[in-house]
Amino acid sequence: MTLDRRQLLLGSLLAGIGGTAFLSACGANDPERSGQGSGQGSTERGGTLTVLVESTSTNFDPAKSQSLAITSLGLVHRRLTAWRVTSGQPAELVPDLATDTGTAGDDGRTWTFTLKDGLLFSDGTPIRAQDVKWGLERSFAAAFSGGLTYHKDLLAGADGYAGPFEGARLDSIATPDEKTIVFTLERPYGDWGWIASTPAFAPVPEGKGAEADYGLRPIASGPYAVTANQQGVRIELTRNERWSADTDEVRPALPDTVVFSLGQSADVVSQRLAADSGDDQSAFGASFVSPAQLAQVAANPSVKDRLVTSESGALAFLALNTSRGPLRDVNVRKAFQYAVDKAGFQVASAGTAALAGEVATTLITDGIAGREEFDLYGAPAEGDPARAKQLLADAGFPQGLSGLRLLVSQDNNGAAKGQAVQASLAQAGIQVVLDVRDSDAYYAAVNDVNPDEYDLALASWQPDFPSANANIQPLFASNQIGGGGYNSARYSNPAVDAAIEQAQAAVDPDAAAAAWVAIDKQVMADSPVVPLIYTRNSFLRGSKVTNFFIGAFPAYPNYLAAGVAQ
Fold it and tell me: In a 3-state reduction of DSSP, which class is residue 245?
């Protein structure tokens, strides 16, 4: 499954507020909770691995993709850097096409990479620095929009650039020879190595990829090439014989063939995998297992050993629109930290607290290096309505608040989760009206400021790469308000904006981690959101699928590692 930002957000939203269940972190991936017999560590090659996908489409065009580095796109395309993901361990940034994870210069304003020797495309032509440059420039063309945009905001001179097809090139991407590529940024940026692992850094042969449907049969740099693509039905990947395992430390490429079976109902997929017959023995589901099915799985000894659950996930949170009415007052917003019953939200999310994921008190999610556990407010998980009422009274609202609008996505019974929050707020004297919308209307409201604004919104977030930078900046930088951004709290604090830019400029990982923790605390002191839970994701596999595991980040199986027992 190509997991793009909308799919990730929707999946996380469903996980956090729409009814998908998760096991607690303490049991994730251990034999009792996530299943023995995963074949972890197997190096057996051969067979056909099938991925059962709910979506009816997937895109292998790197310019258009928002795919995580370890999911479907990574089977076909390599990037300058990659993520080494192992069971129970944080993701590690490692070289992929490049010989290292990048050398910073000019205090982080320039980054230099050197390509490995002997790299070939699936058509037999050499992979050159110029092909990486072309692929990145191609992502600026309007016809190939939709992918992650971090590089577009950071490359010097990129404002207004419209791609290479009319002959314009980006001077901020220099290729002094076929093995060297140098990036010049608008400002220092310590996480550029992680940015170089995002989809647009996959090479596209210079001069190629002008056709709108390039993603149906792209030229591959990874261990597999797309050899059949029946959109809405089936996509087949077979071995790219030009790929060399000697240059690739994250893709064992165990199956001979990988098939994406599209348009599969998530509920039906779980039933099929539980039955474990025929080709489904060599398949896994790309969708989360639902709460009702988790209960059935837990009661079936022959199935529960094939369930794998993440140690980390999205941050589910209640966004407080800081630009509206009484929510402009930080003291009013602090009352919400005590008004929300997080334990009740856990139960509403998954039936029991143990299945939902741990109560959240910070903005940086579990599994991110440098994260610090803290709780500025010390509110009990069940909330403290009396304390909330007192804070509201002290802020000039002795009668509480009324008429606030709570925006919720209707997907996967999201309305019921909104009702749980609504009920707990009522106990604290805060009366809200639910505004339940389909996912498109929900995201339109969150991503674009309009006169008909909401007051509160149930939301969630999983970072695009494993850095606190990707936790904090997209949600709390003021330039992410509207215009497609995800600052659902409409939070704007110049001091926080400056701190974010300073933290992004830190090249030293320890200094950066300390800066992000300080920002986490700074934002939480302003109370623009109420962290609810750190969600967990559960996935089911067939009995012949090997190496099926989830690392500490991200909360999805490592597609690149999975194989099939023969």
Answer: helix
CA torsion, ordered 159, 183, 368, 319, to nearest 10 deg: 0
Our CA dihedral for 112, 166, 161, 507, rounded to 10 degrees, sits at -10
- SS3 of residue 508 by DSSP: coil
d(CA 115, CA 273) in angstroms, rounded, equals 41
- Each residue's pLDDT tens digit, 323-382: 999 999 999 999 999 999 999 998 888 776 667 889 999 999 988 888 999 999 999 999
Please say whether the dihedral angle defined by the alpha carbons of residues 524, 527, 529 and 531, taken in this order, is positive or negative.
Answer: positive
* Low-confidence winner among 134-138, 191-195, 465-469 (lowest mean pLDDT): 465-469
Instruction: For residue 426, give the 3-state DSSP assignment.
Output: helix
Instruction: State phi, psi for 469 to the nearest 5 degrees.
Output: -50, -45
Tell me the C-alpha to C-alpha distance, in Å, between residue 240 and each of 46, 128, 235, 350, 536: 14, 18, 15, 42, 34
Locate 248 and state its tokens: 């690739």
Q: How many angstroms separate the Cα of 485 from the Cα of each of 13, 333, 491?
A: 16, 22, 12
Measured CA to CA, the distance from residue 101 to residue 299 in angstroms comes to 46
Phi, psi of 304 (to 5 degrees): -60, -25
**Straight-line distance from the first to the last Cα atom of the chain, in angstroms, rounded to the nearest whole number:** 24
Residue 114 bridge partners (DSSP)? 180
Neighbouring residues of 408: CB distance < 8 A, sequence distance ≥ 6: 17, 414, 415, 417, 418, 434, 435, 436, 437, 442, 457, 458
Report the alpha-carbon distance of residue 541 to residue 561 in Å, rounded.
Answer: 14
Encode pLDDT of 22-43 as tens digits. 222 223 344 333 333 355 678 8
Task: Measure CA 179 to chain center.
Answer: 31
Please state, in angstroms and rounded to a whole number, the distance separating the CA atoms of residues 198 and 205. 18
Dihedrals phi, psi of 93, to nearest 5 degrees? -75, 125
Q: How far is it, in rounded angstroms, from Cα 353 to Cα 458?
A: 18
- Angle between helices 414-427 and 5-17 in degrees, nearest 10: 50
What is the distance between the alpha carbons of residues 270 and 287, in angstroms, rounded to a whole number?
A: 9
539 by Cβ neighbours in 10 Å (0-12 / 13-18 / 19+) ranks as buried
- Exposure b/e, 274-310, CB count within 10 A at least 16 = b: bebeeebbbbbbbbbbbbebbeebeeeeebbbbbbbb
Helices (H), 357-476: 385-394, 414-427, 439-447, 468-476
